[in-house]
Design brief:
Length: 176
């Protein structure tokens, strides 16, 4: 296991309005990395959501309005980096582009869909990131907190190299 660096960019090159809570705050309490390490990034309904890193989709749950609830609503996408040592979970999406599904390759900056607003809840993207120590599928999944980086790069095209150390330590933005 050796460290690796991935170029990341904000899922909102435009349209971001506010951070609505990061890992371990508010409703982000759970034994599941994709809840506990969630970042709620506010944007108006209909704002395009972009891939934050190069990846392949490993799980896709399309938006079914009949199943929306106060916690689970909109489409869900799970993705992993090309080396299968880092992943992400995006939810509260709608209008997923045709052709996106399990196995689809996406590049950083590709449109993944639009922010979906539900039942008076502040419209936002829920994004959670994980380092997969030892690689998927049998590696150890360790959620990571890059909330501050995403707040600082919102509404910009900034590309940030992020180094994942493959040892359980927090990732290092700016490649260092």
């Amino acid at each position: 296991m050796s460290a690796f660096t991935i170029d990341m960019s904000n899922p909102f090159p435009s349209g971001f309005t506010a951070g609505l809570g990061g890992p371990g705050t508010g409703g982000h309490q759970s034994p599941h990395w994709y809840i506990q390490y969630g970042m709620d990034l506010g944007a108006p309904a209909g704002t395009e959501v972009h891939a934050a890193f190069d990846a392949h989709i490993t799980k896709f749950s399309p938006h079914d309005p009949a199943t929306d609830s106060g916690k689970v609503y909109g489409a869900q996408l799970f993705m992993r980096s090309p080396n299968d040592e880092m992943g992400g979970f995006y939810t509260h999406l709608t209008n997923i582009p045709g052709g996106l599904g399990v196995g689809t390759q996406v590049s950083r900056g590709d449109v993944l869909g639009q922010v979906y607003e539900f039942a008076g809840i502040d419209s936002h993207l829920h994004l959670a990131l994980v380092e997969i120590i030892g690689g998927a599928p049998s590696g150890t999944y360790q959620g990571v907190d890059l909330y501050r980086m995403f707040l600082d790069t919102a509404n910009s095209g900034t590309v940030t190299p992020v180094t994942f150390n493959q040892d359980g330590s927090p990732p290092s933005p700016n490649g260092g």
